[in-house]
Design goal:
single chain, two-stranded antiparallel ribbon, 2 strands, mainly alpha, 2% strand
Length: 331
């Protein structure tokens, strides 16, 4: 699908304007905690913005393009929820004050958006030249799906391992003992030092980049159009920091989210391989319509979320009954 340059500029420019407004409204003045009301408003705003963009695509480029965008957006947004678990662990590990967490997330997500843009450009160019990469992407997504389930069963989901870049930043730059407001660098006795704020921002940005190794192949399994891939990623990332505060403790209750995401990644991996075979004129290999993909992804996330909340409610009720019974025995 040929998208004119003005469309790219309009989307990127529009996103920059929204980020600037978000930054000016939310981050002006003294640092303060992000309220649930603010988080709810901004999450609703960004979801509505994505919906409007999808409708515009439908009116200008047709239903197929809009379907690809919505399927990609829901997939990226769903995978982003998994990122939030790691973000929560990072924030806890570095003991980031809640008043500064939204700034950390903003900078980290902006870094991730730039790096994902580079990934998308490279991926689109590679897929255009080497069609066999569809098989590689498909196999990688299936492997990732299996690995995600294994990690969840082993409990590795609750661990954060520092990557090479983060370890290098720690060693290369002198760091202050604690946070100095929201500053990333300060002068101490005439010596320029970085604060833990910068370390956390690097941790958030690079961790999201590692997640992109899963999510970028996943969305290329739904559409190979770089414009739609970038737009879906951008809109999914835009409301991520507000979603972090909105979900809050709910993250710990989404006990089946890893299984749902694993199923989605596995489904897209199989879809990629089947469509690559179909393009190679293999008679038995079907071409999976985008409407089917959209339905499977949406239904999976709904079922996973409802099942998780029911399981958490059941566990809480059982825990309360055990506590009540123990108190009665002691009495």
């Amino acid at each position: 699908m040929a998208v004119p340059m003005w469309a790219w500029l309009a989307v990127i420019g529009g996103l920059l304007v929204v980020i600037a407004v978000d930054l000016w409204i939310v981050d002006r003045g003294e640092a303060r905690e992000f309220s649930m009301r603010q988080a709810g408003f901004w999450v609703t705003f960004y979801v509505a913005l994505a919906a409007v963009f999808g409708v515009v695509l439908w009116l200008t480029l047709g239903g197929d393009a809009a379907g690809q965008f919505f399927a990609g957006y829901i997939t990226e947004y769903s995978l982003s929820v998994d990122n939030l678990f790691i973000f929560f662990i990072i924030m806890s590990r570095f003991a980031v004050p809640r008043a500064y967490q939204h700034k950390v997330l903003l900078v980290g997500i902006l870094l991730a958006l730039v790096m994902r843009g580079i990934f998308i450009a490279l991926g689109a160019a590679a897929l255009t030249r080497f069609s066999w990469l569809f098989y590689v992407f498909g196999a990688f997504l299936i492997y990732t799906a299996v690995n995600l389930v294994r990690q969840h069963l082993k409990g590795d989901h609750d661990e954060f391992n520092e990557n090479v870049l983060l370890r290098w930043v720690r060693k290369a730059f002198p760091t202050t003992e604690g946070f100095v407001g929201s500053k990333v660098t300060v002068k101490v006795d005439g010596r320029r030092m970085v604060t833990p704020m910068l370390i956390v921002m690097v941790a958030i940005g690079t961790t999201d980049l590692l997640f992109a190794l899963d999510s970028i192949p996943a969305i290329f399994g739904l559409t190979q159009d770089p414009f739609i891939v970038f737009a879906a990623n951008a809109f999914a990332l835009m409301g991520l920091r507000q979603l972090y505060f909105l979900l809050g403790g709910l993250l710990q209750r989404l006990v089946y989210i890893s299984y749902g995401l694993a199923f989605i990644l596995g489904f897209i991996g199989v879809k990629l391989i089947l469509e690559a075979l179909h393009a190679s004129h293999v008679s038995w290999a079907p071409e999976v319509p985008i409407s089917v993909s959209l339905g499977v992804i949406g239904a999976t996330m709904v079922i996973t979320t409802v099942a998780s909340l029911l399981k958490s409610r059941s566990d809480a009720r059982k825990s309360k009954e055990i506590t009540t019974s123990a108190d009665a025995n002691q009495g």
